[in-house]
Amino acid sequence: MKGKLFVVGIGPGKNDLLTIRAQKAIEQSEVIVGYKFYVELVKELCEGKDIVNSFMTKEIERCKIAIANAENGKIVSLVSGGDSGFYGMAGPVMELVQRKDIDVEIIPAVSANNAAAALLGAPVMHDHCSISLSDRLTPWELIEKRLHLAAEGDFVISLYNPKSKGRPDFINKAVEIFLKYKTPETVTGIVRNAERENQSIVITPLDKVLQEEIDMFTVIIIGNSNTREVNNKMITPRGYKL
Amino acid sequence: MKGKLFVVGIGPGKNDLLTIRAQKAIEQSEVIVGYKFYVELVKELCEGKDIVNSFMTKEIERCKIAIANAENGKIVSLVSGGDSGFYGMAGPVMELVQRKDIDVEIIPAVSANNAAAALLGAPVMHDHCSISLSDRLTPWELIEKRLHLAAEGDFVISLYNPKSKGRPDFINKAVEIFLKYKTPETVTGIVRNAERENQSIVITPLDKVLQEEIDMFTVIIIGNSNTREVNNKMITPRGYKL
């Protein structure tokens, strides 16, 4: 029997932000593959199934295990935090299955950015860039160039992977670049653990961002020149007359 | 009794791409407000409720009706296609409720862009810009500037509102700008009616985009310099060694 591989974005964390399609894919799967932390978030759906965990840096190993199980005729869900198409597992899977006879279905999800935005109010709303500050797979020079161009274009900017042990000062460099184009008062939202335990939400001016706690589970959304803070919410007007 | 207003992103269209949270919000609401087309997509959840439709250009009127109902102590869902925080209703609502005593909850969703990406394969994956080509609320000069900067930064670029009757040639101008920075072969995905009736998915080189059918229900995703087409899927490698 031909195997089936679902690449399932489970959203930011809380179970009620799963889509119905994601829930059904996991329920009908025989094998669940994913980073332990994400599998734990959907464990109620996984009872009685084969579960393959692996560690954070073993992304490609996980993809290969999921594909191998599907090649053996199994129905498999590879679970991914957020949306698997945004800095996630959809890409490596699509590359690895090129010459294999497996049905693959990517299930879109609520991304970390969408979840963080909703918690902040309406900070995105308009033309928008996402940039990852991780240089593990991208040269820092290119990241820096993109930071300049995004700020020059007055885009709303979301920063993924803003800080890790190996590169604690990249966020400092990013803020420094933004301040060349944006005012120090530019409204900025910092969401840690969006829709997970220990969630925190801070709205602060751009030049005060570095005073806040920032880690790998943080999304930072920097407003455009029209973004305002109102009643502890971050709002980027679209331009409607109200 | 204090009213409650849910701003509910219903995702791209198919009911199984609703989140569980969105479904519950609609189910517990007494009043549903939304553009007819979107309310129709979730009509099974709306039986027995007060439904207020209005026309496409009456966004602000819909927000005000929803808020007025919540001020009267009702539980209200304002439904929005895609994610309400991306070119949607979250912004106007947050601006309009500033001085009112209503609980507002924004429910994040699968955006049109996330849905289109999953249908194409894994086209986004990396640093990414979204730009709307509608000049109804944004001066064309600013849109044009953003098109230049996004292309110069080799971002993956999603175009929203690529074409309407009033401005049929903006997409031509956008492609012309992109071709100053990107090769004619740059892999481009065109998704019409993602996860709705009459869905169509095309992958084509950038210089052939204008030969395809494009309308207001189309999302166009232009790859970066590493994006490839493989087996009729669009893949932007993240950079992993596979």
Describe this structure in words.
2 copies of one chain form a homodimer. With 242 residues, chain A is of the alpha/beta class. Chain A is 27% helix and 26% strand. The first copy, chain A, is built from 7 helices and 13 strands. Chain A has helices at residues 20-28, 36-41, 59-71, 90-96, 112-120, 140-152, 170-178, and strands at residues 4-9, 31-35, 50-54, 75-80, 103-107, 121-122, 128-132, 156-160, 187-192, 200-205, 218-222, 228-230, 233-235. In chain A, strands 3-2-4-1-5 form a 5-stranded parallel sheet, with helices on both faces. The first copy, chain A, has a 5-stranded mixed sheet with strand order 7-8-11-9-10, with helices on both faces. In chain A, β7, α6 and β8 (156-160) form a beta-alpha-beta unit. In chain A, α6 packs parallel to α7. Chain A is elongated. The N and C termini of chain A lie far apart (58 Å). In chain A, 53% of the residues are buried. The mean pLDDT of chain A is 94. The interface between A and B is large, with 73 and 73 residues. β7 (128-132) of chain A pairs antiparallel with β7 (128-132) of chain B.
Let me know the largest β-sheet of chain A.
5 strands, parallel
Strand order of the largest sheet of chain A: 3-2-4-1-5
Strand content of chain A: 25-35%
**From N to C, what is the helix and strand string of chain A?**
EHEHEHEHEHEEHEHEEEEE
| Count of beta strands of chain A | 13
* Helical stretch tally of chain A: 7
Helix content of chain A: 25-40%
Protein chains sharing the most extensive interface:
A-B, 73 and 73 residues
Class inferred from helices and paired strands of chain A:
alpha/beta
Mean pLDDT of chain A: 94
Rounded to the nearest angstrom, the distance between the terminal CA atoms of chain A is 58 Å
Q: Globular, elongated, flat, extended or rod-shaped: what is the shape of chain A?
A: elongated
Low-confidence stretches of chain A: none
Oligomeric category: homodimer
Radius of gyration of chain A: 19 Å
